[in-house]
C-alpha cells in the first residue's frame, strides 16, 4: 500500500522532489500544484501522469478527501506557506515544509527524525538546503563536546537558485542560523549563502566552522564526523567530505561537496537533492506509521 | 581628456574596505580620528562597516574588533558635514542589521551582489527605499560580465528602488577601456534617472586612471581611501585622486592639503605596513580575483606551504566570487595533499 501525496510548488525543489517520490516504495505522488500553467515542473508532472492544477493550493483542496491525500510537500515560499498549511491541516493532511517558513519544528532527519516521529507532529520544516547539508556536521561535533559558535558557508551554483530563493535570501540565513542552534546544538549560529555563476556550474560546497568551548577532542570528533557522513550518504550518495576536520586551536573546520543525482537539474545542484532527499525520508517514515495505523 | 567643470562626490572607503587591510581590527579611537579628519577635509560621504559589510563579522571573514554599531557610534556623532554609509552583502547581512545601522545613524546603504546576481538584493533595496535611505546597488566583480548584462542587472536593482548604481572593480582587474564600456552602457540606459558610481582597486595601478575613465563616461560618485587603505593593493588613493581632479578642474569639495595630511599623518601610522602593489596583490588584478582574498591566501601559504600566487591564479581560474574565502583554505588543502605536504 502506498500513501498518496501532493506536491505544492512546481519550481526547482518541487520538481526534483517529484522524481525522488516516484522512486519511493511507500509514497505515491499523485498531485502537482503550481501557479503557472506553463511552468516546466507542471508540464513534466502532467506528462508523467500526475494530476495537476495551476490554481495554487485552492485548486487541490476539493480533491484531498476523494484522492486520499495524506501527506503534502510545500515547496512554494515562506510567505504563502502559512496559509497553505492552515488549509491542509484543516483537512487532516500532514505537511512537510520545504520553505524557510519554519512554522513546525525543524527536521534534519539524520539528527532528530526519531524524536519528531515520536511526537506525531502535523507540520515539519526542512530548514534550508544549506541547513540540511551542514547541521548534521554541527550536530556531529556538538554530540562530542560543547560548541560555542558554529558558522556555515553554503555555496550553490546560480543556475540552481530559483527566484524564490533569491527574493527571500534573508529567510535562508535566518532560518539556517536557527537550525544550527536548535538542531545542530551550537550555542550561537551563523549562516552565509553565496551564489556562484561559474560555467560549467560548480557543485554545491558547504563549509562548517565550529568553535568548541574546550580543547577539541580530535579523535572523537573525527569519528563522529565520519559516522555522520556515512549516515548522510545513505540518503544522499553524493555527500562527500572534501577536507577536514581541520583543527586550529578551538576551531574545527569541515569542507563538504554535495553532488546531486541529477533527477531534475544536473548533478551540480546537490542543494536540491540534499533537501528533497531529506524530505522524502521523513515522509516515508510518516507513511509507514500511517500504514501501520498509528 | 576634458573633465573640466564636472562635479564628483567622493566616497571614502578607509573605514570599510580599509578594514580588510588590518583584519577588521580598527579601534574606536582610530575610526573616530580618521572620520574626523575626513570630515574636516570636506569628504562628503564615509563608509563605516566591517570589510564584508553588515553581518560580515565571522570566522570566514574575520571577527571585527567591534560591532558595526560600536564603530558607527564612534563616528556619527562627531561629524559636522559628512554623511555615513554602510555596505550590505545579501547572503551575509540581513535586513534586521540594516535597520539597526539606520538607528545608529547611516543615511546611505550600498547593497552589493555579484554582478550577475542582482535579484538577491530585492529585500534589502526595497527596505532601504522604505527607510528613505540613499540606496545604492553595488555590482561587484563587474569585469566578469559584459556591459549588456550589467545593464540588465542594474535595471533589476533600480526597479527595487536603487537611486544609484555602482560598477565595482572588486578584483582591480579592469583597464580604462573596460570601465568606459561599462559605465557608458549604464549611462546610455538610464540617463539622468540614477547616479552612477565607480569603486576601484589599485591592484594594476589603475585606480586613478579608471576613476577618470568612469567620470568621463558619466559616473559622478567615486570611491577612494586614505593612503590606499583597502583590500588587495587598496582602493584608489583619495589624496592622489583629489590632486588629479584639482588639476583637471573637477569639483570635489575636498581640500587637498588636508586630505594629504590625513593620509600621511593619520592613516599611514594606523596602517602599519604601507599598502603597496606586491607580487601577490598584483596577481589579484592580473588573474581577476576578489581583492580581500589576499591576506587569506598569504595565511594559507604560511600554513600549508602553497605559494599564494599559485592559489590566487587557481581561484581565478575556478571563477570564485566575492565571499568565497572558505575556498582558499580548501584549495590549499587540496594542493598540499596532491603534493604530499600533508
What would your notes on this structure say?
The complex is a heterodimer of chains A (294) and B (342). Chain A has 294 residues and is α/β, with parallel strands linked by helices. Chain A has 9 helices and 11 strands. Chain A is globular. Chain A starts with a strand and ends with a helix. The model of chain A has no long low-confidence stretch (mean pLDDT 96). Chain B has 2 domains: 9-270, TIM Barrel (Alpha-Beta Barrel), CATH 3.20.20.70; 292-338, Helicase, Ruva Protein, domain 3 (Orthogonal Bundle). In chain B, strand 4 (108-114), helix 5 and strand 5 (134-140) form a beta-alpha-beta unit. The longest helix of chain B is centred in the last third of the chain and has 16 residues, at 256-271. Chain B is globular and about 60 Å long. Chain B starts with 8 loop residues before the first strand and ends with a helix. The model of chain B has no long low-confidence stretch (mean pLDDT 97).
Amino acid at each position: 500500500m502506498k500513501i498518496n501525496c501532493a506536491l505544492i510548488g512546481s519550481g526547482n525543489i518541487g520538481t526534483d522532489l517529484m522524481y525522488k517520490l516516484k522512486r519511493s516504495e511507500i509514497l505515491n505522488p499523485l498531485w502537482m500544484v503550481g501557479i503557472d500553467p506553463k511552468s516546466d515542473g507542471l508540464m513534466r508532472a502532467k506528462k508523467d501522469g500526475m494530476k495537476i492544477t495551476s490554481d495554487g493550493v485552492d485548486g487541490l483542496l476539493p480533491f484531498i478527501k476523494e484522492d486520499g491525500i495524506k501527506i503534502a510537500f510545500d515547496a512554494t515560499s515562506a510567505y504563502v506557506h502559512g496559509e497553505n498549511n492552515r488549509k491542509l491541516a484543516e483537512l487532516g493532511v500532514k505537511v512537510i515544509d520545504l520553505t524557510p517558513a519554519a512554522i513546525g519544528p525543524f527536521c534534519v532527519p539524520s539528527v532528530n527524525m526519531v524524536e519528531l516521529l515520536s511526537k506525531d507532529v502535523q507540520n515539519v520544516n526542512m530548514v534550508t538546503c544549506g541547513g540540511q547539508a551542514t547541521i548534521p556536521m554541527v550536530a556531529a561535533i556538538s554530540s562530542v563536546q560543547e560548541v560555542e559558535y558554529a558558522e556555515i558557508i553554503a555555496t550553490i551554483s546560480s543556475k540552481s537558485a530559483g527566484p524564490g530563493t533569491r527574493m527571500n535570501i534573508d529567510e535562508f540565513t535566518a532560518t539556517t542560523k536557527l537550525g544550527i542552534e536548535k538542531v545542530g546544538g551550537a550555542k550561537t549560529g551563523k549562516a552565509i549563502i553565496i551564489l556562484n555563476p561559474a560555467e560549467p556550474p560548480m557543485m554545491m560546497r558547504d563549509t562548517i566552522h565550529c568553535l568548541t568551548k574546550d580543547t577539541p577532542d580530535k579523535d572523537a570528533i573525527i569519528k563522529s564526523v565520519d559516522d555522520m557522513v556515512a549516515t548522510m550518504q545513505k540518503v544522499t550518495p553524493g555527500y562527500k567530505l572534501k577536507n577536514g576536520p581541520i583543527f586550529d586551536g578551538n576551531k574545527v573546520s569541515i569542507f563538504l561537496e554535495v553532488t546531486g543525482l541529477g533527477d531534475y537539474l544536473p548533478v551540480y545542484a546537490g542543494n536540491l537533492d540534499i533537501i528533497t532527499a531529506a524530505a522524502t525520508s521523513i515522509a516515508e517514515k510518516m507513511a509507514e506509521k500511517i500504514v501501520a495505523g498509528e | 581628456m576634458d573633465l573640466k567643470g564636472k562635479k564628483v562626490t567622493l566616497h571614502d572607503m578607509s573605514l570599510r574596505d580599509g578594514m580588510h587591510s588590518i583584519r577588521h581590527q580598527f579601534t574606536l579611537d582610530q575610526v573616530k580620528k580618521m572620520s574626523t579628519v575626513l570630515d574636516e577635509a570636506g569628504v562628503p560621504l564615509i563608509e563605516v562597516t566591517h570589510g564584508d559589510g553588515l553581518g560580515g563579522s565571522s570566522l570566514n571573514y574575520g571577527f571585527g574588533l567591534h560591532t558595526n554599531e560600536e564603530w558607527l557610534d564612534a563616528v556619527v556623532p562627531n561629524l559636522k558635514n559628512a554623511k555615513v554609509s554602510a555596505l550590505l552583502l545579501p547572503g551575509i547581512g540581513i535586513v534586521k542589521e540594516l535597520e539597526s545601522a539606520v538607528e545608529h545613524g547611516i543615511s546611505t546603504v550600498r547593497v552589493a551582489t555579484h554582478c550577475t546576481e542582482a535579484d538577491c538584493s530585492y529585500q534589502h533595496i526595497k527596505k532601504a527605499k522604505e527607510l528613505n535611505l540613499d540606496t545604492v546597488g553595488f555590482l561587484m566583480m563587474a569585469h566578469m560580465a559584459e556591459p549588456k548584462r550589467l545593464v540588465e542587472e542594474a535595471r533589476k536593482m533600480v526597479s527595487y528602488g536603487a537611486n544609484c548604481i555602482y560598477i565595482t572593480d572588486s578584483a582591480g582587474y579592469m583597464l580604462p577601456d573596460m570601465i568606459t564600456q561599462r559605465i557608458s552602457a549604464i549611462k546610455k540606459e538610464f540617463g539622468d534617472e540614477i547616479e552612477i558610481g565607480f569603486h576601484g582597486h589599485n591592484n594594476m595601478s589603475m585606480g586613478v586612471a579608471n576613476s577618470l575613465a568612469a567620470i568621463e563616461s558619466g559616473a559622478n560618485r567615486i570611491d577612494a581611501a586614505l593612503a590606499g587603505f583597502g583590500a588587495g593593493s587598496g582602493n584608489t588613493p583619495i589624496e592622489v585622486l583629489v590632486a588629479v581632479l584639482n588639476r583637471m578642474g573637477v569639483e570635489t569639495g575636498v581640500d587637498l592639503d588636508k586630505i594629504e595630511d590625513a593620509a600621511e599623518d593619520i592613516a599611514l601610522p594606523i596602517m602599519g605596513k604601507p599598502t603597496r602593489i606586491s607580487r601577490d596583490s598584483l596577481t589579484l588584478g592580473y588573474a581577476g580575483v576578489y581583492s580581500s582574498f589576499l591576506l587569506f591566501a598569504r595565511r594559507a601559504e604560511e600554513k600549508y606551504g602553497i605559494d599564494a600566487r599559485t592559489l590566487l591564479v587557481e581561484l581565478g581560474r575556478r571563477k570564485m566570487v566575492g565571499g568565497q574565502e572558505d575556498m582558499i583554505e580548501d584549495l590549499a588543502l587540496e594542493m598540499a595533499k596532491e603534493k604530499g605536504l600533508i
